[in-house]
Amino acid sequence: MKILIVDDEKDVEMLFRQKFRKELRNNEIQLDFAFSGEEALEVLGSENPPSVVYVFSDINMPGMTGLELLEKIKSKYPNILVSMISAYGDSDNYNKAINSGAKGFFTKPIDFENLKTEISQLIKQKEG
Amino acid sequence: MKEDLEEQIEKLKQLLLDKSELLDQSQKEVQLFKEQVIKNEKLASLGMLSAGIAHEIKNPLNFINNFSELSIEFLQEIEDILKGLEKTEAIEDIEAILNDLKYNLDKIQQNGQRVNRIVTSMLLQSRGNNGVFEPTDINQLIKEYVNLAFHGMRASKSPINVKIEFDLSEDIGLIPLKQEDFSRVILNLCNNAFDAMRENNNISQGGNREPVLKISTRKKDNIVIIAVEDNGQGISEDIKDKILQPFFTTKKGTQGTGLGLSISSDIVSAHQGTINIESKEGFFTKFIIKIPVS
Ligand SMILES: [Mg+2]
């Protein structure tokens, strides 16, 4: 199961790779990274259909925001799940995200327990 | 005839004098008002700025908290591996260093979580204005949240025994309140009272003064008065006027954010009300909230 992480801060790559090292080693998930909304769309567009099933995106990024990316993904690839991960957990951002079709909304600092639960539920669904 | 004229001139002079005094007065008022507007403007932009900063702090905080948590996990794995090896002096040295490392990482994590708490309360404070005024049974709200604060304190790491005395006036009726905000004021004041009484217990061990929290409500001339009084350590005269300022705290170490009372003060202001403090060091502290109702 391929997951795409979108965030303008490069350190997220090492953070996610380390946090999910067991899941990666066991080949339960594959991680891909994009450091802007534009790059994320390139990654998704490079395969037809995209192998990514779930996108976790930051909201506050230079260029395309996470909310814009969410709308683009939802209109182009309605089957891909998108959740937001943002430092801006106010109700305004939350409502915008959910109304645009986001599956979930996670706040920073990220609680990886929550994130792992979300992902393992999906793995179970895929298997079951 | 001449006298008449003089008298009239005198009258006019006086009138002019009166008017110019009035003008002076209103000019001063305009000046004051201008200053107030500028101050409010500054405060508002400061509020927006600090909300922006507070959000941005969460990004680096994400890395601080999560990378330190990860490193603690890695250290645990190293320790597990070392356990399987034959004990040598070198391995014992390594284990000792790893222990120190783990301690340091724990400290980084604890303080990262502390920053997160501070930033979260800053954001709560700057959000404001979202609540709606609803007709509220203030006595009911007070009972509910004093109880909540009490049980929260009892479940905490350092519970104390407190006698709670309610003296709630029956003739207040419903008053318009932002319930979510106002309940936080009650929680904050109770928590401060518990802390103050816990401190006093520590100071005067053997002093056998039973901690008592008194909460009263009254209505007088269209003003609702809520008083929260504890018999804790009290507040010294020199910090009394600082205590409502943001980030001012007397709590030791990591316990207080210094925002509780300043948030409470903001919330009461949003209800057009005031908070006053009466206190005698070593004896009592009484917070008096006055809210005008029409
Ligand atoms: Mg960002």
TrEMBL record, chain A:
<protein>
    <submittedName>
        <fullName>Response regulator receiver domain-containing protein</fullName>
    </submittedName>
</protein>
<dbReference type="Pfam" id="PF00072">
    <property type="entry name" value="Response_reg"/>
</dbReference>
<feature type="modified residue" description="4-aspartylphosphate">
    <location>
        <position position="58"/>
    </location>
</feature>
<feature type="domain" description="Response regulatory">
    <location>
        <begin position="2"/>
        <end position="123"/>
    </location>
</feature>
<dbReference type="GO" id="GO:0000160">
    <property type="term" value="P:phosphorelay signal transduction system"/>
</dbReference>
<dbReference type="InterPro" id="IPR001789">
    <property type="entry name" value="Sig_transdc_resp-reg_receiver"/>
</dbReference>
<dbReference type="InterPro" id="IPR050595">
    <property type="entry name" value="Bact_response_regulator"/>
</dbReference>
<keyword id="KW-0597">Phosphoprotein</keyword>
<dbReference type="InterPro" id="IPR011006">
    <property type="entry name" value="CheY-like_superfamily"/>
</dbReference>
TrEMBL record, chain B:
<dbReference type="Pfam" id="PF00512">
    <property type="entry name" value="HisKA"/>
</dbReference>
<dbReference type="InterPro" id="IPR005467">
    <property type="entry name" value="His_kinase_dom"/>
</dbReference>
<dbReference type="InterPro" id="IPR003661">
    <property type="entry name" value="HisK_dim/P_dom"/>
</dbReference>
<dbReference type="Pfam" id="PF02518">
    <property type="entry name" value="HATPase_c"/>
</dbReference>
<keyword id="KW-0175">Coiled coil</keyword>
<dbReference type="GO" id="GO:0000155">
    <property type="term" value="F:phosphorelay sensor kinase activity"/>
</dbReference>
<keyword id="KW-0597">Phosphoprotein</keyword>
<dbReference type="InterPro" id="IPR036890">
    <property type="entry name" value="HATPase_C_sf"/>
</dbReference>
<dbReference type="InterPro" id="IPR003594">
    <property type="entry name" value="HATPase_dom"/>
</dbReference>
<dbReference type="InterPro" id="IPR036097">
    <property type="entry name" value="HisK_dim/P_sf"/>
</dbReference>
<feature type="domain" description="Histidine kinase">
    <location>
        <begin position="52"/>
        <end position="294"/>
    </location>
</feature>
<protein>
    <recommendedName>
        <fullName>histidine kinase</fullName>
        <ecNumber>2.7.13.3</ecNumber>
    </recommendedName>
</protein>
<dbReference type="InterPro" id="IPR004358">
    <property type="entry name" value="Sig_transdc_His_kin-like_C"/>
</dbReference>
<feature type="coiled-coil region">
    <location>
        <begin position="2"/>
        <end position="29"/>
    </location>
</feature>
